[in-house]
Amino acid sequence: MNGAQSLVKTLLAQGVDMCFANPGTSEMHFLAALDNPAMRSVLCLFEGVATGAADGYFRMNDTPASTLLHLGPGLANGLANVHNARKAGSGMVNVVGDHATSHLKYDAPLASDLDGLARPYSHWLRRADGPHTIATDVARATTAARKGRIATLILPGDASWGEAGDPPDCPIETPVFHAPKPGRVDAVAKIFKNPEGPILVILGGRACQGEGLKLAGKLAAATGCRLATQFFTGRIARGAGRTPLERIPYFVAPALEFLKDFRHIVTVETGEPVAFFSYPDSPSLLKPESCDVHGLAEKDEDGAAGLDMLLDALGARTVAPKRQERIETPVPSGKLDPQTIALALAAALPENAIVVDESLTTGRNAAGFTLGAAPHDMLQNMGGSIGFSTPVATGAALACPDRRVISMTGDGSAMYTIQSLWTQARENLNVTTIIFANRAYQILKAEYANMGFPELGPRAAAMMEIDRPTLDFVALAKGMGVPGLKVASAEAFFRALQKSCAEPGPMLIEVCL
Amino acid sequence: MNGAQSLVKTLLAQGVDMCFANPGTSEMHFLAALDNPAMRSVLCLFEGVATGAADGYFRMNDTPASTLLHLGPGLANGLANVHNARKAGSGMVNVVGDHATSHLKYDAPLASDLDGLARPYSHWLRRADGPHTIATDVARATTAARKGRIATLILPGDASWGEAGDPPDCPIETPVFHAPKPGRVDAVAKIFKNPEGPILVILGGRACQGEGLKLAGKLAAATGCRLATQFFTGRIARGAGRTPLERIPYFVAPALEFLKDFRHIVTVETGEPVAFFSYPDSPSLLKPESCDVHGLAEKDEDGAAGLDMLLDALGARTVAPKRQERIETPVPSGKLDPQTIALALAAALPENAIVVDESLTTGRNAAGFTLGAAPHDMLQNMGGSIGFSTPVATGAALACPDRRVISMTGDGSAMYTIQSLWTQARENLNVTTIIFANRAYQILKAEYANMGFPELGPRAAAMMEIDRPTLDFVALAKGMGVPGLKVASAEAFFRALQKSCAEPGPMLIEVCL
Fold first, then answer.
1. Of B106, B383, B479, the CB nearest to A73
2. Where would I find the Thiamine pyrophosphate enzyme N-terminal TPP-binding domain in this sequence (chains A, B) (predicted)?
3. Beta strands A226-229; A376-380: pairing state
4. I need a labelling partner for B147 at 20 to 30 A (CA). Which of A244, B283, B330, B423 fits?
5. Pick from A116, A381, A426: CB nearest B119
6. Tell me: the pLDDT tens digits for B314-348?
């Protein structure tokens, strides 16, 4: 077999059976090798869709996906969502085709410093030496990706088409996240025993779902501490029956207010709260000076194990965890505003939905109102690069074909990777895309004020408005094969949501504000 | 004034009065400073539109444009078209906002190795030290960009908002391209005097227009040498009255055939012909072994000066240059195919149009048929990263508001940066976008065969088809405020082209194949 076949065989042996692809000429042998019934190849019209989909897929699946990208520019197009995935701890195996080694010296049009480009956002990076070593490379890349790392394998044409022999047997290495050291847990236990003031436990990473979340619920029930997440978290299990988590506000002033009375912050698989952006005369760190921060578990440690050890030290293992009750939300009526939108969402959310949340302004209130909705997972953008939700929703839907994915985004954000809609139509994915169309980069208007500008000059103001011409998202969706409708009232929004959840396949709802 | 104001003032003093922007929070002070009537800020919904527009603007204008990009991911989104611009020798000044210096250590969501990311595709790269040195940085960046270089200035928030004082007076440095050394010209002159076989002169860079092109026409008239370009060239002045240039074919086999009888190749502001991609058992270099290659002028030298010196050495300065005659093309009728499409284009092309050519399969024949059309400029993709034409057309239209821009692209390519249409509508640009909708990555099917695969497996074949669902480009254009129509016959295509050229503003024509 050739190198490309060895690559695909090894991916499959490592449990990677999903490839988000945007191929080019230099990846023809890889493409030929993908013609394998065990591998699902999903075509994306833009590389940012492929890498974002790999992020969403990882968040909802135990095994990473691979991507197929076309030389330096193909990788470049995918990097913004690689950045978001990296910050979320979502692993992926990026396979980036390159010219054959002998061709590189001629500086052909698509030649560039591909290694230099891949380095900043890859945890693991390798240029395949030749066809014989590809299998080992892929096994290592997959091991890194399974641990939540960005693995990038550069695949020169000759490594792809050359004779590789049979790939060696590379056993799957299950990722290990170590429990925190007992001394660290004991120090935190001492604080809980003698707190001298309120304690906030901030959960991140894998601790916001499953066992970690349940154990945090026990801790809250036993000690009265409050539980929160950063403003953005990779995946949170929430809704009725789950332990509820508060959300530290996004803007600096309310975040300072939220944190001001805590004596201790205990972090689990996350760091201490920092401002998303920097502003003149505004702090980067959000906690008060009088508050001490204690790391119970680092990002690459086992937060659930740390919480279990802590509960043991506190003698609270058998306490019943704090749980959110179901709140039946009546169907809202009247004008669409952040509150009625959030209520409609809470009322319509089906059991076990996946909510991908990229609404920066309009949808921001939704989080509070959906706390008591049907159980669901929420995926948020950890890297801040917009154009996140539609690709991530695409990947999440492929990972969980039996669940409805609700992708919430603003009109500005949606336009970065709008090509996702086509893949959703092609694969008939159960994704409801909600566009909050306020015809502006609304977040920037708030941020402009935060920077201390009293008012906008007309030219600067125009650069935050996307109302001229008005984007017609229903037409855009139609152009890519996705049915869509516009709604202008809370009832219509609710009905549209219900309808989209009742019918298989994708739908787009343009919420006209 | 603050650093951002100093930056904008210096850009303007350096003659840079166009900014393609996709701003974010970290660029709020820059945005505020852009509120200056002397600076034209053009909003782009995606960064690849901004950098591609800067490329098109440079090709049609003496002075570069600037871009405003938002941290690492914003730059990443723009890099594919930066790559294309770099290969074309199109300069631009990228201003990339970053967090304030004091905020970087907290690894906030949007923090990344921005310097590492910018390095591979920037000729000139600097992180602003502080507000006081920004003016000098900008003057240097602009000098580099004016010479056709990619200049990237990373602008931390504190450098932007801190007090800068009045910017120093930085005179504009006009770029100098040196004439080739006389010895090199003499060596080439000797070959022309005693050629021992046919000579091909390959023109690139600035030599494909203006004085360089005219001098090459004299050389051809005086010596009988043939004149050609590489398959892709940044800008060619062509049509009736201009010196006609042949085009070296794209695929390896016809390129070898085209070049096989030449004894000498003389290159002017370009290199010797190399294959676009590498294939197993296929050469990278396209000339026959018996052919010698002579560089008359390197890419950064003055090819026109070299040609003038050569003509002088040959005593041919006063020869009348070879010129293309006007060929009146009758309006074609019947079925749309590559030939009738090319004929319709040749017949409809208005005087002084700018043709941006990204049609990889269907439109490829157009070049031959438009040689005798009305005089026009043709811009091609030197970097091979698709998603080129719609942004470049946007920038070209802004540089030349009185000229019609015809942007030809395939359906696959168009989807990478389709957001350009919105900017074209917003700025009411005279751009006709022609989508050759063959519902496939048609080029890949040919390349698959070139790689030696006898037939496609069904899964690999599906990855080259974009027909499921069918993209409706008229709906996509409507979604972004651009009127569009579908055509299915040669007459209808011609009429649509005529109509679009007669009416101001953008239009999209979907050519259904």
1. B383
2. 1-105
3. unpaired
4. B423
5. A116
6. 999 999 999 999 999 999 999 999 889 999 999 99
Could you give the ipTM of this predicted complex?
A: 0.97
**Residue B10 identity (one-letter amino acid):** T
pTM over 0.95? The answer is yes
Q: Which residue has the tokens 């979502």?
A: A90
To which residue do tokens 């972090």 refer? A267
Q: How many helices (H) and strands (E) does chain B have?
A: 20, 18
Chain B residues close to A80, C-beta within 8 Å: 73-74, 76-77
| Alpha-carbon gap: A202 to the closest alpha carbon of chain B (Å) | 16
B99/A278 Cβ within 8 A: yes
Chain segment A382-436, per-residue pLDDT in tens: 999 999 999 999 999 999 999 999 999 999 999 999 999 999 999 999 999 999 9
Cα gap A425→A111, rounded to integer Å: 34
Task: Compute the Cα dihedral for A261, A264, A270, A271 and give only its sign.
Answer: positive
Strand (E) or helix (H) holding A502 = helix A490-502
Nearest to A478 among B285, B444, B472 (CB): B472
Q: Six-digit token pair at A446?
A: 């708030």
- How far apart CA B3 and CA B149 sit, in angstroms, is 24
pLDDT-based confidence at residue A454 (cuts at 50, 70, 90): confident
Q: How confident is the model at residue A365 (pLDDT cuts 50, 70, 90)?
A: low
By the CB < 8 Å criterion, does B478 face chain A?
yes
> Token digits for B25?
């929070």
Domains of chain B in start order, with CATH, are 3-161 (3.40.50.970), 182-314 (3.40.50.1220), 338-512 (3.40.50.970)
HEC string for B484-510: EEEECCHHHHHHHHHHHHHCCCCEEEE
CA–CA distance, B248 with B263 (Å, rounded to integer): 16
- The answer for residues whose C-beta is within 8 angstroms of residue B513's C-beta and 6 or more apart is B336, B362, B436, B437, B438, B439
Which DSSP category does A235 fall into?
Answer: -
- Residue-wise DSSP of A251-302: SHHHHHHHHTT-SEEEEESS---B-SS--TT--SB-S-TT-EEEEEE-TTB-
Size (chain B), residues: 513
Q: What is the mean pLDDT of residues A258-276?
A: 97
Closest Cα in chain B to A116: B120
How many whole angstroms separate alpha carbon B395 and alpha carbon B65? 9
What is the DSSP code string of A188-216? Answer: HHHHHHS-SS-EEEEE-GGGGSHHHHHHH
Of the partner residues A46, A453, A475, the one whose CB lies closest to the CB of residue B478? A475
Inform me whether the C-beta atom of residue A161 falls under 8 Å from chain B C-beta atoms.
yes
Which neighbouring-strand residues pair with A265?
A200, A293
| CA gap A45, A480 in Å, rounded | 11
Residues 6 or more apart in contact with residue A214 via CB below 8 angstroms: A243, A321
Residue B237 phi, psi (nearest 5): -85, 120
Q: By CA distance, what is B474's nearest residue in A?
A: A479
Range of lowest pLDDT (A210-219, B118-127, B359-368): B359-368
Residue A471: pLDDT band by 50, 70, 90 thresholds? very high
Contacts of B444 in chain A (CB under 8 A): 23-25, 28
For the stretch A99-122, pLDDT in tens is 999 999 999 999 999 999 999 999
Helices (H), A314-387: 338-348, 366-369
Contact between B123 and B86 (Cβ < 8 Å): yes
- Searching chain B, which residue's CA lies closest to the CA of residue A477? B476
Supply the pLDDT for residue B70.
96
Helix, strand, or coil (residue A345): helix
- Give the largest CA-CA distance in chain B: 69
